Amino acid sequence: xxxxxxxxxxxxxxxxxxxxxxxxxxxxxxxxxxxxxxxxxxxxxxxxxxxxxxxxxxxxxxxxxxxxxxxxxxxxxxxxxxxxxxxxxxxxxxxxxxxxxxxxxxxxxxxxxxxxxxxxxxxxxxxxxxxxxxxxxxxxxxxxxxxxxxxxxxxxxxxxxxxxxxxxxxxxxxxxxxxxxxxxxxxxxxxxxxxxxxxxxxxxxxxxxxxxxxxxxxxxxxxxxxxxx
Length: 229
Prior knowledge:
This protein is an alpha/beta fold and 229 residues long. The protein contains seven helices and eleven strands. The chain has helices at 44-51, 74-84, 100-105, 115-128, 144-156, 174-189, 201-205, and strands spanning 3-14, 18-29, 33-37, 59-64, 67-68, 85-89, 162-166, 194-198, 209-214, 217-221, 226-227. The chain has a seven-stranded mixed beta sheet with strand order 6-7-8-3-9-10-11, with helices on both faces. A four-stranded antiparallel beta sheet has the order 2-1-4-5, covered by helices on one side. Strand 7 (162-166), helix 6 (174-189) and strand 8 (194-198) form a beta-alpha-beta unit. Helix 5 runs parallel beside helix 6. The longest helix is centred in the last third of the chain and has 16 residues, at 174-189.
């Protein structure tokens, strides 16, 4: 089984000596479904930015799909991100006034594919998340749970190596949240590699692997049987 993400000794410091990450080692294998969990200020959001190549570490190495991030120019890093990583955010980030299909097709904007092909792939992705009958609906015509499904379809339409879901149920009621988590389980069963970043211990406990972050360090990882005092 190939490794999609490998972090070795990753540290991230900000101005004033604030250390958000402190020597993090983390490997995510193809086909995994895991939670990266921790309270506010634990470092999990910084870890999301590092794994998602939205930020670079101060020290340590980051490999995504076999590529050492430190060796890439910003342009090549952007290409790596668009080809290999899909993002789902709490706030959906859908384009208002644009149909669900065109919102999803936007996820393929830098693929080089013709518009008709992008829209056809978007339609397939929406069907995959159970929204075949909502393709022409605009965001204001969708419920919160449906908006998050559109966001997930946009993230997976290009078949990325890794899907990063940042608090994907945070803006949803409990029923919609459960439906979204079930969708992530279903996508994982189809082969998607998914990391869910969350502060919700119940959501974390429902996933096959839990990586727990505190004070910028991995203090527990059920894949390695590691538990810190």
